[in-house]
Amino acid sequence: MRLRFPILPTARAAWLAAIAAPIAVVIGAAAPGSWVLAPAAGAALLVVVLLDGLLAGRLADWRFHVPADTEVGEPMDVTVIAEFAGRAGWTRPEVALEVDPRLSEDGRVELKLSHDSGTASWQGTRQVVPNRRGPATLSRLWMRWDGPLGLGARQVEHDLDATVRVWPDLSPVRSPELQNYLRDSQFGLIARRIRGEGTQFEALSEYEPGMDRRRIDWKASARHTKLYARENESERNNQIVFAFDCGQAMCEPVEGLPRIDRAVSAALTASYVALKGGDRVALFGFAQRPEMMTPFVGDARLFHRLQSAAAELDYHAEEPNFTLGLATLTGRLQRRSLIVLFTDFTDPTGAEIMIESVGRLVEKHVVLFVTMEDAELASLADSNPHDLESLAVAVTADTLARQRALVLERLRQMGVDIIEAPWDQIGYRLIDAYLDIKRSGAIG
């Protein structure tokens, strides 16, 4: 740990020296014999700065508090507490922190301390919003406080050894709406058999008016001389894979957070519902090469494993390799599964490669393609141009929107289910689509 107590001139001292400099020049020109007054005044100012810095007092103790864990996009508090010896409340001490860009884009967090008369200490808190997942380090702290005249200041520097683990945003999982839904729906907190839906045979019951005639079991009815209907149950133990494109397009921000973080939050929300429904869930990430694939998790009590794995999905400023990524995923799956692919695209050439890779995936698995609506692109395409430049922007945006719609339509024709929605609706749209596919028995 480095600890320094230098005395530094303040901005007020610098302004005072700047104002005095031309006066000294005028005096030297008007009375050459009085030139000695200029260095004497400078030396006097230096002495005053040193004395003022000494009167500022010394740092007796300090403490630094940050949470060990937080979630991306969720505010967290950074608190600094300091105690001084021989210091009155002339000015508020200032603190600067060197932090990971995950906590602040410019790598710097600043705050001022206020005096707490109850504890006779100085305290300050700054709210920071993490913008990316992963371990975020806080490496250094500077603290500075002025003397009574505001001409001299003391400054200390400390090396820090603090790391904040930034997890995916799980606020949708904890939301009262989802928890109430899980309690009241057929995929409740207590797993139970769901009769009347799905394709797995459960039991026979006497046919009653109002039942679907397609459920009548004619062979059993002939044996018993009564009409009997089949009662089915929704399949369980299905394999659900959430696949993430970690490439450049998914790292672009939407409402302040990268698309990949929005996708991770939606996927974990749907994963929680799938685990409650008795299915098995795995995560897969790829960019230029496959990055990560987790083992299948089949117990809601092991949801934290998915959360930890999702936190390790990295950001890559490069185009994804759909051919290698999706081929690797296909080779690792031993049975028919539901693959939820989160991706985005802007380049028509890259979209063609993606379509070919998804087409090979559809041959063996059920594919759900999830992409976020580009609100900025839509607003540019719908804007009223007022000059040639804005007209060119509107035409380009409209062309890109048409190409995007064409790609999605080609995927639909291949049998791929599509979810295209604003980022804040993706999670619940994904849950609805998953439940519809599960009820149809298309996975097993």
List keywords for this structure.
3 domains, Rossmann fold, 12 helices, elongated, 6-stranded mixed β-sheet, Immunoglobulin-like, alpha/beta, 444 residues
What topology emerges from the helices and strands here?
Elements: E1 7-9, H1 11-30, H2 37-55, E2 58-65, E3 69-71, E4 76-85, E5 94-99, E6 108-112, E7 114-116, E8 121-128, E9 134-146, E10 152-167, H3 171-174, H4 176-184, E11 195-206, H5 218-224, E12 228-233, E13 239-245, E14 253-254, E15 257-258, H6 259-276, E16 280-286, E17 290-293, H7 303-311, H8 322-332, E18 338-342, H9 348-362, E19 366-372, H10 375-382, H11 388-413, E20 417-421, H12 426-440
Parallel strand pairs: 3-10, 13-16, 13-18, 18-19, 19-20
Antiparallel strand pairs: 1-10, 2-4, 4-8, 5-6, 5-9, 7-8, 9-10, 11-12, 14-15, 16-17
Helix pairs in contact: 1-2, 6-7, 6-12, 8-9, 9-11, 10-11
Explain this structure to me?
The protein is of the alpha/beta class. The chain folds into 3 domains: 58-167, STAT transcription factor, DNA-binding domain (Immunoglobulin-like); 171-190 and 236-440, Rossmann fold, CATH 3.40.50.410; 195-233, no CATH class. The chain contains 12 helices and 20 strands. The chain has helices at 11-30, 37-55, 171-174, 176-184, 218-224, 259-276, 303-311, 322-332, 348-362, 375-382, 388-413, 426-440; strands at residues 7-9, 58-65, 69-71, 76-85, 94-99, 108-112, 114-116, 121-128, 134-146, 152-167, 195-206, 228-233, 239-245, 253-254, 257-258, 280-286, 290-293, 338-342, 366-372, 417-421. Strands 1, 3, 5, 6, 9 and 10 form a 6-stranded mixed sheet that branches. It has a 6-stranded mixed sheet with strand order 17-16-13-18-19-20, with helices on both faces. Strand 16 and strand 17 form a beta hairpin. Helix 6 runs parallel beside helix 12 and helix 8 packs parallel to helix 9 (348-362). The longest helix is centred in the last third of the chain and has 26 residues, at 388-413. The two termini are 60 Å apart. Residues 186-199 have low confidence and may be disordered.
